[in-house]
Amino acid sequence: MHPVWTPLLLSLKVAGLATLLNMVLGVAAAYGLSRWRSPLRDFIDSILTLPLVLPPTVLGYYLLVLFGRRGAFGAWLDSIGIQLVFTWQGAVVASTIVAFPLVLKASRAAFENVDHQLENAARVLGVSEAGVFFRVSLPLAARGIAAGVLLAFARALGEFGATLMVAGNLPGRTQTLSVAIYEAVQAGDDGAATMLVAITSITCVVILMLAGRLLPDRKQFTLR
Fold it and tell me: d(Cα 63, Cα 49) in Å, to the nearest integer?
């Protein structure tokens, strides 16, 4: 396989798995925050959104502290034969955490725009809380959630700093698109760098266009 396509396929795998994890974790957290009434809600939201504003190297350092062999979770994982640092699975963890806030923010906004009267009407009709979520809240918020998921995929696809610190730069094993671009520039391989940059840019533009089309109008969430 041409060396240009190897990091692309790895990045697609890493970003895809990270996006699947964020679809579950991000949507669940967003729904909980949108319905939770507590003085602690803003603090929890700030903690969950922190990866969006932290420098990637700072986030990478935190991940190494947590998941390194001597880290809080890393030592336990190592005892059961699981290693995340310098593996593509580590890149998945880094990309998931970096992109998580995008799903959280978009999904929370979508859930908060859903008319509560529709949810209350379903409860009056005897629908369980799980039924209200899956049959009322989730379908009405689906477009906003989908936009956040697409943006999270693009963010995971282009993650560099935290991924480099956690997964390293092992060609064919942990070298993702962004890391491969950096390596190509450092090596003076302008052809490979240009091709990788073009692939990344085109992919992100397409994703942004799709996300823009999916971003919902507030009117569709309210009773007419």
Answer: 16
The share of the chain scoring above pLDDT 90, in percent, equals 50
- Write out pLDDT tens, residues 56-67: 889 999 999 999
Could you read off the pLDDT of 202-215 as tens digits, one per residue? Answer: 888 888 888 777 76
- String of DSSP letters for the chain: --TTHHHHHHHHHHHHHHHHHHHHHHHHHHHHHHH---TTHHHHHHHHHGGGTS-HHHHHHHHHHHHSTTSTTHHHHHHTT---TTSHHHHHHHHHHHHHHHHHHHHHHHHHTS-HHHHHHHHHTT--HHHHIIIIIHHHHHHHHHHHHHHHHHHHHT--HHHHHHH---TTTT--HHHHHHHHHHHT-HHHHHHHHHHHHHHHHHHHHHHHHHSPPGGGGS--
Q: Which two tokens stand for residue 4?
A: 């240009």
Closest-CA residue to 49 (of 102, 92, 12):
102
Positions of the chain with pLDDT lower than 50, given as ranges: 218-224
pLDDT value at residue 193? 87
Residues 48, 209: Cα–Cα separation, whole Å: 26
> In angstroms, what CA-CA distances link 213 with 60, 111, 138, 206?
33, 18, 18, 11
How many whole angstroms separate alpha carbon 95 and alpha carbon 106? 17
**Quick one: tokens of 11?**
């990045």
